[in-house]
Amino acid sequence: MERYETFEYDVLVVGAGGSGLRAAIAAMEQGARVGMVSKSLLGKAHTVMAEGGVAAALGNVRPEDNWKVHFRDTLKGGGMLNNWKMVQNYAQEAPERVLELERWGAVFDRTPDGRINQRNFGGHFFPRLAHVGDRTGLEMIRTLQDQAVKMGVNVHMETTITRLLQEGSAVNGAFGFDRRSGKFLAFKAKAIVIATGGLGRIYKITSNSWECTGDGFALASMVGADLIDMEFIQFHPTGMIWPTGVMGILVTEGVRGEGGVLKNNQGKRFMFDNVPDRYKGEFAETEEEADRWLEGDREARRPPELLTRDVVARAIRMEVNEGRGSPHGGAYLDIASRRSADYIKKKLPSMYHQFMKLANLDITKEPMEVGPTSHYMMGGIKVDPDSQATTVPGLFAAGEVAGGLHGANRLGGNSLSDLLVFGRRAGLAAAEFASKKSSWSSLDDSEIAQCLSEALAPFSRAQGENPFAIMQDLRNSMQKNAGIMRVEDELNEQLDIIRKLKVRAHNAAAAGGREYNPGWHTALDLPLMLEVAEAVVLAAAARKESRGGHARLDYPEPDPAFAMVNHLVRRKQGVLAVETAPLPVMPGELKEIADAKGAVS
Ligand code: FAD
């Protein structure tokens, strides 16, 4: 049998983004021996790209803000499909998790009186996002990484996990390979935390980094974990759509929070005409009122550009569909005519430098051409709201890969605090689970043999297919058939395409050696990408209504029949299938908060 090296950890954390790092810290605080695996280098996980900020009701800018308003805003943004207990845990704990980061050395932007500053973001009733210019993710990762390294985490960088291993129904380890050397590794673990981030890369146009191929959803599903809300993918309204060199790259919502406005090809600010009924009365009705709000007038209402992402993304799509779009099929985002060049460079430094460098576009002088880009997965591995335990014993999940907190749509800034709150909870629960096991269970030789044979198979397919071609077909077809606007026939067509792509993926070939071999890596990514794509399409086909991030052209309105149900995708006898599950019932006192208008005390 091909050689492999074995490692033993109490808790194995798969993923080194914000959630993985926070889980590792929590588990180590409990005395667990923690190993962390990351496809990329430590410090380079996708979290580093986060720009706008981390949402927490600190009340530093508006003292009226508190966890109840954050709870209400998050549920409202999520179309009330969120798991209420997760939202409660989240809103209550987020402020302490941000303050803790500060104690560990994170340097946030300040208010004039020296407290952590907070900025406006879509769907948040009060300015709530603690930030570090537009480089918040970088500061978070730097801080968490310092803390985890100081505590002695064992990191396996540039290592990809391809399979979770099981003893009975419980997980007892993981199998993977070192991307640099091509050598194989097996991990024995008493508990595992999946923290592998999102799946944007299954789409052609995405803001997500290369590692977001959806591995964690698929790894968990393949060992029997339930997935929840997989139809809800957030298409961020303001991805660059032109020039091509920056296609998909995100223009942070911070641009709109700082006064940027959306215009169509007639120069009209169209968001005033696109306020949905559920938000009527909460947003400014004139440009003058919107500007007063930006200047800090507490009597004025927010600009409609700060509506939730699903609403703004769909409004842009409608402008395009009705012939008022920009030349490349989007809208104009203009901050240049609204703020001075100095202000823009100070408040949005990365935006300015990035587009200047990559596309020679000066956002202090001209508007950006933007449109929806696949950005965030609201759904994910179903977890217990307190412990982040999945439906598989010993397996926990946190961060973007876990579902339930965001319901049908996530508010900007809520992901970074999700990572902190639930990363910590997952780490604590995993360490506790591990502490009840006196030793590691042995790995099953035949299971390892199968992992090795699957991993090496692409090298034996001399007549096989180029894996990049298969991946491109997947990404293009997902974009076309399961993108921002969905319809029954196309979803069914996509299921058919995925099934054919699965057959082709079994014939994906790799040539050359095993060191840094991108063709081989892609061939091994494909089965996971196809599993998660199928789960998305199945759930999207089952939800015959439009709600949050899921928009159906054939069912354009929310349907009360779907208002109180989540969809679960689960493997049964090797086949993925969708089931409906009723929402957990919210206690009366929380329902009152959820239904409240305006500030809540
Ligand atoms: P990630 O940070 O994606 O980390 C995943 C880790 O898992 C990586 O280390 C990766 O290498 C590893 N991994 C993946 N698969 C495997 C595998 N098979 N084996 C081993 N390791 C694996 N949210 C906010 O709240 N505020 C913002 O301002 C904000 N801005 C954003 C800006 C951009 C451009 C983007 C794209 C997103 C933004 N988000 C923001 C969303 C937020 O950044 C992400 O949701 C969040 O960082 C995800 O963190 P995570 O820890 O779950 O996963």
Protein architecture, described:
- The chain has 601 residues and is α+β, with helices and mostly antiparallel strands.
- The chain is built from 16 helices and 18 strands.
- Strands 1, 2, 6, 7, 8, 9 and 16 form a seven-stranded mixed beta sheet that branches. The chain has a four-stranded antiparallel beta sheet with strand order 15-10-17-18, with helices on one face. It has a four-stranded antiparallel beta sheet with strand order 11-14-13-12.
- Strand 8 and strand 9 form a beta hairpin.
- It is globular and about 70 Å long.
- The termini are far apart.
- Bound molecules: flavin-adenine dinucleotide.
- The site of flavin-adenine dinucleotide (FAD) has 46 residues, from helix 1, helix 4, strand 7, helix 5 and strand 14.
The residue-averaged pLDDT reads 95
Low-confidence stretches: none
Tell me the helix content. Answer: 25-40%
Structural class: alpha+beta
In total, the number of strands is 18
Termini separation comes to 65 Å
**What's the number of helices?**
16
Describe the largest sheet: 7 strands, mixed
Please indicate the percent range of residues in DSSP E strands (runs of 2 or more): 15-25%
Oligomer designation: single chain
Outline: globular
Q: What ligands are attached or bound here?
A: flavin-adenine dinucleotide
